[in-house]
C-alpha cells in the first residue's frame, strides 16, 4: 500500500523462525534467507526473535568470552552479507548475545569493570550495526535463569523506519511494569516491536495477547510481537506471532508450531490500522499434541539423530509416544520392539504389532524369557525384584539396539507415574535420551490418543489416514504385565482420582489440609503425598522431556532428595 504523492507506508515483517543453540553460522544463514523473503514481500523492517543468532536459551554459553566473540563475528558477517545481496536498505532487527562493562554505580569514575554478557537486540542496515539495545528485565523464575547470566540494559531504543518512530524491547521488558515500555509514550512511537523467545505452556497464548494489549494501550501504538518457534532441549517455542491494536484487537497473527513470515503495514497514526490474516486457534488437545511432536522432532534432530527406538507394549503410553514419534520423524524412522515375557497377554502383543503397522514403524519381537532365566540362574530373585528384572532386561535390549544401529531410545513414561514413582528405574519405560510425554498426566494421555485418532478420521494429517492407535490400547486397563493379572490400580488409586490429587498437590502446591478440605479421602491423600515425596530420587534420573505445563518435573519443581519434612 502506497500513499499518493508521499512516501510508502512502512511494511513490517515478523519472522518467527527455528534456531539451534550455538549454531551461529546456520542461524545467521537463516537470517539471510528470511530477510531475502521479507524483502521480496516488500518489507522495510524485518524483526527476528530474541537471541536469533545464538539460539535460546544459551545458558552458560553466554559466559564464555569465546562464544560471545563468535556471535559478534557472525553478526558483522551477516550485516555485510545483507548489503552484498542488495538488502542493505532493509532494516533487520535480530537478537544475539552482546556484552557490556560493569562499573559499580557508587564509583562513577572507576576504571572499566569486567565485561558481562547481555541479551541484545541489534539493528542491521547498510552493511553495518546501527543500533544495539540490551534487555532490561531479566527473568529469574520457572525455566529462566537470565538474572544470573546477563547484565541488564538501561537505555531506551527507538528506531526510524521510513520516517516513523518504532520502539524496540525484548520479551520480559513487556511483562514487567515500568522500564523501557513506560518511556515509550514520551518518545511518541507509532509502533512497539517485541523480540521474544517465549516457551510454550498450555494456556499461555492468551496471556501474551492480553499483556500486549495492555502495553499497546499504554504506549498508544500497536504492538508487533514476534516469537521464536521450534524446540530446544526440553522447551518448545510455539511461534504464534501477532500484531495488536491499542484497543486490544488482534490485527493479524501467525500459526503456531511452524516457521512463518507475518507481513503487516503500519498505516498513518490517524488511520484505522491495517488488518491481515488471523491464524485459527488450536483447540487444547491439538495444541498440546503439536507441542509434543515439535519437542521430540527438535530434540532428536538437533542432537544429530534421525530415528528412535522404543518398547511397544501394546499399552496406551507407548502407543501414544510411538504415534508422536511417527508424526515427528516419519514412521519409517521409528523402531518398535515388542519384548514379551511369560506374563504378556496375546492381546498386548497383537496391539503392539497392529500399532506398528498403522504408523509404518519397523516392528521387531524380542522375547525376554531366556534372558531372564539366565540371569535368575545366577542370582535367584522373587517378588518385586523378579518383576523389576523383567523390566530392566527390556531396557538393556533397547540400549543394545540403540548402540548397534544408532537410534535414540525414547521413554514412554507419563507425568502421573513419574510423580508417584510408579516406574522401574533403568527399565524400558524410563531409560533413554528423551521422554516425550514426561509432562503429560495419564488422564491427558487418553485424551490425546482420542484426539489423534479423531484427527485421522477428520483428515487433519492427510486424507485417508486410518486412526493410528488401536482401540483396545485405549480401552483396556493399564498394566505393566510383570505378574499374572496385574493392573496399575493394584498399587495406585484410579487415574482420574490420582490426577486430581496430583494436580492440587504438585501443580498448585496445596498441602494436606487443603486436600482434605477438598473432600479427598485421608488415606488417598496420605498415600499420594508420601509417594510423590519419596520418588524425587527417581525423577532426578529420568530423561528430559517436552515441557507443556506451567510446572514440569525437572525444570520447575525439585525437592531435596533426602527431605524428611512432612506437613502436620
From TrEMBL:
One of its GO terms (cellular component) is cytoplasm. It is an enzyme of class 6 (ligase). Residues 10-268 form the CN hydrolase domain. Pfam families: CN_hydrolase (PF00795), NAD_synthase (PF02540). ATP binds at residues 311-318. GO terms for biological process: NAD+ biosynthetic process. Residues 469-489 are annotated as: Disordered. Keywords: ATP-binding, Ligase, NAD, Nucleotide-binding. Pathway: Cofactor biosynthesis; NAD(+) biosynthesis; NAD(+) from deamido-NAD(+) (L-Gln route): step 1/1. It comes from the Bacteria. The active site is at residues 50, 135, 171. L-glutamine binds at residues 141, 198, 204. Deamido-NAD(+) binds at residues 388, 417, 538. It catalyses: deamido-NAD(+) + L-glutamine + ATP + H2O = L-glutamate + AMP + diphosphate + NAD(+) + H(+). InterPro entries: C-N_Hydrolase, C-N_Hydrolase_sf, Gln-dep_NAD_synthase, NAD/GMP_synthase, NAD_synthase, Nitrilase/CN_hydratase_CS, Rossmann-like_a/b/a_fold. GO terms for molecular function: ATP binding; glutaminase activity; NAD+ synthase (glutamine-hydrolyzing) activity; NAD+ synthase activity; nitrilase activity. Its EC number is 6.3.5.1. In the C-terminal section; belongs to the NAD synthetase family. Belongs to the NAD synthetase family. Catalyzes the ATP-dependent amidation of deamido-NAD to form NAD. Uses L-glutamine as a nitrogen source. This is Glutamine-dependent NAD(+) synthetase. It comes from Cellulomonas xylanilytica.
Amino acid at each position: 500500500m502506497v500513499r499518493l504523492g508521499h512516501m510508502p507506508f512502512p511494511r513490517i515483517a515478523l519472522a518467527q523462525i527455528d534456531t539451534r543453540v550455538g549454531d551461529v553460522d546456520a542461524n545467521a544463514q537463516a537470517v539471510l534467507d528470511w530477510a531475502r523473503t521479507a524483502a521480496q514481500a516488500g518489507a522495510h523492517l524485518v524483526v527476528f526473535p530474541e537471541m536469533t543468532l545464538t539460539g535460546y536459551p544459551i545458558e552458560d554459553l553466554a559466559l564464555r568470552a569465546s562464544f560471545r566473540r563468535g556471535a559478534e563475528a557472525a553478526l558483522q558477517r551477516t550485516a555485510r552479507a545483507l548489503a552484498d545481496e542488495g538488502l542493505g536498505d532493509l532494516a533487520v532487527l535480530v537478537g544475539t548475545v552482546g556484552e557490556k562493562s560493569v562499573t559499580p554505580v557508587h564509583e562513577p569514575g572507576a576504571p572499566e569493570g569486567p565485561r558481562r554478557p547481555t541479551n541484545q537486540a541489534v539493528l542491521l542496515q547498510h552493511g553495518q550495526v546501527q543500533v544495539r539495545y540490551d534487555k532490561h528485565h531479566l527473568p529469574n523464575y520457572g525455566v529462566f535463569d537470565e538474572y544470573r547470566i546477563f547484565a541488564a540494559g538501561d537505555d531506551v531504543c527507538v528506531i526510524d523506519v521510513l520516517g516513523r518512530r518504532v520502539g524496540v524491547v525484548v520479551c520480559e521488558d513487556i511483562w514487567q511494569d515500568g522500564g523501557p515500555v513506560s518511556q515509550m509514550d514520551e518518545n511518541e512511537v507509532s509502533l512497539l516491536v517485541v523480540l521474544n523467545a517465549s516457551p510454550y505452556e498450555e494456556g499461555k497464548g492468551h496471556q501474551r495477547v492480553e499483556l500486549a494489549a495492555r502495553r499497546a494501550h499504554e504506549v498508544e501504538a500497536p504492538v508487533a510481537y514476534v516469537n521464536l518457534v521450534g524446540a530446544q532441549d526440553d522447551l518448545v517455542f510455539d511461534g504464534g506471532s501477532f500484531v495488536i491494536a491499542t484497543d486490544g484487537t488482534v490485527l493479524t497473527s501467525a500459526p503456531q508450531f511452524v516457521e512463518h513470515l507475518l507481513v503487516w503495514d503500519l498505516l498513518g497514526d490517524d488511520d484505522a490500522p491495517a488488518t491481515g490474516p488471523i491464524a485459527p486457534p488450536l483447540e487444547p488437545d491439538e495444541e498440546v499434541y503439536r507441542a509434543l511432536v515439535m519437542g521430540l522432532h527438535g530434540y532428536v534432530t538437533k542432537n544429530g539423530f534421525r530415528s528412535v527406538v522404543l518398547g511397544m507394549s501394546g499399552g496406551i503410553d507407548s502407543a501414544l509416544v510411538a504415534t508422536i514419534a511417527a508424526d515427528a520423524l516419519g514412521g519409517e524412522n521409528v523402531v518398535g520392539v515388542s519384548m514379551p515375557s511369560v506374563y504378556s497377554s496375546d492381546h498386548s502383543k497383537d496391539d503392539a504389532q497392529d500399532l506398528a503397522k498403522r504408523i509404518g514403524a519397523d516392528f521387531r519381537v524380542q522375547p525376554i524369557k531366556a534372558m531372564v532365566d539366565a540371569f535368575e540362574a545366577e542370582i535367584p530373585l522373587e517378588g518385586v525384584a523378579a518383576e523389576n528384572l523383567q523390566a530392566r532386561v527390556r531396557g538393556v535390549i533397547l540400549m543394545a539396539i540403540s548402540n548397534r544401529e544408532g537410534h535414540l531410545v525414547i521413554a514412554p513414561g507419563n507425568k502421573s507415574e513419574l510423580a508417584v514413582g510408579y516406574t522401574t528405574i533403568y527399565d524400558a519405560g524410563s531409560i533413554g535420551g528423551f521422554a516425550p510425554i514426561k509432562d503429560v498426566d495419564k488422564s491427558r494421555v487418553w485424551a490425546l490418543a482420542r484426539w489423534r485418532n479423531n484427527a485421522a478420521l477428520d483428515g487433519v494429517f492427510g486424507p485417508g489416514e486410518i486412526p493410528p492407535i488401536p482401540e483396545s490400547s485405549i480401552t483396556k486397563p493399564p498394566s505393566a504385565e510383570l505378574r499374572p493379572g496385574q493392573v496399575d490400580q493394584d498399587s495406585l488409586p484410579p487415574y482420574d482420582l490420582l490426577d486430581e490429587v496430583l494436580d492440587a498437590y504438585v501443580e498448585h502446591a496445596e498441602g494436606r489440609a487443603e486436600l482434605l478440605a477438598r473432600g479427598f479421602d485421608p488415606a488417598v491423600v496420605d498415600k499420594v503425598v508420601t509417594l510423590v515425596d519419596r520418588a524425587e530420587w527417581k525423577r532426578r534420573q529420568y530423561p528430559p522431556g517436552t515441557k507443556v505445563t506451567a510446572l514440569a518435573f525437572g525444570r520447575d519443581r525439585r525437592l531435596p532428595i533426602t527431605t524428611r519434612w512432612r506437613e502436620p
